Amino acid sequence: MAKPVGRRGETRERVLATALELFAEQGVSGTSLQMIADRLGVTKAAVYHQFRTKDDIVLEVVRPVMERLLVLLEEAGARPASQERRRFVVHGLIDLVLAHRRLLGVLFGDPYVDALLKSHVETSGHTDRLTVLVVGETPSPTDLVSVAVFGGGLVSVGGDPNLAGLDDGTLRRELRGAAERLLFTEEVARVP
Amino acid sequence: MAKPVGRRGETRERVLATALELFAEQGVSGTSLQMIADRLGVTKAAVYHQFRTKDDIVLEVVRPVMERLLVLLEEAGARPASQERRRFVVHGLIDLVLAHRRLLGVLFGDPYVDALLKSHVETSGHTDRLTVLVVGETPSPTDLVSVAVFGGGLVSVGGDPNLAGLDDGTLRRELRGAAERLLFTEEVARVP
DNA sequence: GTCTATAGCCCGATAGAC
DNA sequence: GTCTATCGGGCTATAGAC
Question: For the HTH tetR-type domain, which residue ranges apply (chains A, B) (predicted)?
Fold first, then answer.
């Protein structure tokens, strides 16, 4: 599986960086290899020399996130189920989002990427394992909705232009605060 | 602006319904007029007889949501700024999501749709007005992040398969509860 | 490793018969 | 209102020169 990458894979890295930019601006389906090549100042064929297909580019762009997610899942799985483990997973996810701000907002939720990831055995099923780790095997409707809202919100903060001005430290603190309020607050009886 | 729609616009409605289905499955850029026509059992030209361009179809699919959002914005704008108004807007958004479950999750956040809406004067700026109504003119970082998380989460619940089993009543109750915890909870001092 | 050139397909969109 | 047929163009992908 090792590929003989000339001297250094620097062109390869430039392709991936440019692809990510364009995916963020136009979406994956809206980005052609021609656009990537144009922005790099090379031809389509040069890009094809680095990646066999467009799907390979997408998978390579997403890979760092998936690998990191897998590590988080394994670390969490090794711990006993508890409130502490839930918090460990949530904080890990927040840090993951911070480390890949743009990437997550753009690529996850994209139907093209979803289908692509689902067709690759090693990455499919991660989100299901995640849900179980956070809400347990038999979640209540409250748990389900809370996790869905927080998960969806977490993914969307990356690409949110309103939040571009916040530095990582502030964003981490605020996201942890939001998680506490949303996920770790006891239900209070409400009078109808 | 009234269009002379043959006898009844039933074919037109079928096109829109089918388009929505496909947008949900493949994304907007990933859906061709050929796919829409194939699923309907007609040819591309028949679809083109109902809509001048693909963009017209997308705009028409989104229109009910935008119109309802505009009504909500105007009703809210007529009220004095207060906690009560914030809650009114949030509850209105929740009901809007419930009324268009699939549509919202699929189309909003799609770069193609975003660009299309931005180029149409009458719909652009709605989300900005929304943000102001909920968090005010000078939002704190906490407000910004809370609203971003809840907004992103709200949009994503529509397409979430984990939540497909929940009926509208349950989902409304749980979303309101999540909004209370996330948006309307006083900050508590935390010891570092 | 990058180039030119091209194959073959599907795209959005149009014209005109029925 | 639906059809067949077609346009021009962009797409992914390949072949082969430098």
Answer: 9-69
Distances (CA, A) of A3 to A9, A51, A53, A54, B148: 10, 11, 15, 17, 42
Residues 6+ apart with CB under 8 A from B48: B33
Which residue in A182, A47, A51, A26 sits closest to B148, CA to CA? A182
| Contact residues on chain B for A110, CB-CB shorter than 8 A | 27
Instruction: Identify which of A145, A166, A182 has the shortest CB distance to residue B163.
Output: A145
Q: Where are the domains of chain A?
A: 1-52, 62-183
Residue A167, pLDDT above cutoff 50: yes
By the 8 A CB rule, do B17 and B103 touch? no
Q: How many CA atoms lie within 13 A of A54 on its CB side?
A: 16
**CA–CA separation, B147 and B179 (whole Å):** 9
| pLDDT for the residue numbered B47 | 97
Residue of A nearest to B151 (CA): A153
Find the largest Cα–Cα distance for chain B.
69
For the beta carbon of residue A80, count every other beta carbon within 10 angstroms. Answer: 6
Any idea which nucleotide's C1' is nearest the CA of A48? D13
Question: End-to-end alpha-carbon separation of chain B, Å?
Answer: 61
Closest CA to A34 of A50, A21, A45: A45
CA nearest to nucleotide D1 C1': residue: B46
Q: What is the mean pLDDT of chain B?
A: 90
DSSP state of B161: G
Predicted pLDDT of residue A36: 94
Amino acid at B13: E
Residues of A with CB under 8 A from a CB of B: 25-27, 29-30, 109-112, 131, 141-142, 144-146, 148-157, 160, 162-163, 166, 170-171, 174-175, 177-178, 181-182, 185, 187, 190
The sign of the torsion formed by the CA atoms of A166, A168, A170, A172 equals positive
**Cβ contact A154:A97 at 8 Å:** yes
Read off the pLDDT of residues B99-146 as tens digits, 9 standing for 90 and up. Answer: 999 898 888 888 899 999 988 878 878 888 998 999 888 899 999 999
Closest to B113 in 3D by CA, of B26, B175, B28, B54: B28
CATH code: domain B1-52 is: 1.10.10.60
